[in-house]
Design a protein that fits this description.
The protein is 39% helix and 13% strand. With 398 residues, the chain is of the alpha/beta class. It has a seven-stranded mixed β-sheet, sandwiched between helices. Strands 9-10-13-12 form a four-stranded antiparallel β-sheet, covered by helices on one side. It binds pyridoxal-5'-phosphate (PLP).
Amino acid sequence: MTTLDDFTRRAAHLDAANPVASARHQFDLPEGEVYFLGNSLGPLTHAARAAVTRVLDDEWRNGLVRTWHDGDWLDLAASTGDLVGRVIGAPAGSVVAGDSTSVALFKVLAAAARINQSPGRRVLLCDSRNFPTDRYVARSVAELHGLDFVEAEVTDMPARFADDIAVMTASMIDYRSADLHDVRAITAAAHEHCIITVWDLAHAAGAVKCDVLANDIDFAVGCGYKYLNGGPGAPAYMYAAPRIIGSVHQPIPGWFGHAEPFGFEDTYRPAAGITRFSSGTTHVLSMKAMHAALGVINMYPIDDLRTTCIGLGDFFIEGFDTFLGGGNFSLGSRREGSQRGGHIALLHPDAERMSKELIARGLIVDFRPPNVIRVAFSPLFLRYADVARLVGELTVLK
Ligand SMILES: Cc1ncc(COP(=O)(O)O)c(C=O)c1O
């Protein structure tokens, strides 16, 4: 019979073999706590701290306004976008960072609706299980563009695809269950009807391979503060397929998206590339933190990050099966690692109280009503030993 001690010993062996184990040293983690919420707000990297300190102590304090031109601030949205691109499988020049995910989604959905403007295309189709902000924004874009707002489960979408749909939007990973959708197949099915596809990668980037170019996605958006560890309120990002970038129009044509922001021209001329999706002044402080954190994630091959992410989740499920049967906990996520994102939904009828109990024991998880405890297996800083500790505490609580 396997004991918790055996399980903990196995964790030590798995940690020793983890190809991305060294990444943990890049983080400034609080003593004594285990952080299972890298899917919500990634932790602080030493690099982000240093980058922000450099802006405060030198670039802003000494350089002042000159740094816009003498430093790298003007190019920061594009260079940060390129670093995101390496994580999500997008070529250089096809991603720009900025705004929040909500605003970014509004911009790309409006751009998509404009591309497919035609009397026959009446529908904007939205993932019915999408994160609430996505559904609010998508409904608003539909109303503004005179489209019918229709919702469907992502898995049902291919059956609904038809020539009356202008745009479809969905999350690659369900924020509650962590279901990983077959982006390639759904995008291909949409394209058969010339539907423009807009994917939210918020819970995917850094935890799974997004392969936006290989999957032929038209547009994507996502958060910088989750697995990318960009910091609280970190900028979002927008991707447009290189084949369409040069012809898309976004609805907030500000000076930072202009071909020559400092030309102060009377008329808007979009930048040739993806920076046409920028609108206003770059949020330098938060962008610098995110840029630095992306440097950390880009030190590791995404295949290794994915392997470790699945490995940690599988190890948790093994512990769940071995030690947690017969209690009130159940699994709300798929068992097959390749079908899951980075987190696992642990279900309990009294999930809110259980989350608080875990947090009081230094295991930081979160609660999603009505009965979900979310536990994320961020591959850069979590250890198998942390998972063993979680399983041990759950055996006490079950
Ligand atoms: C899938 C998804 N999309 C969008 C958002 C919201 O992003 P923002 O607050 O940057 O607008 C979140 C926030 O957690 C999310 O999980």
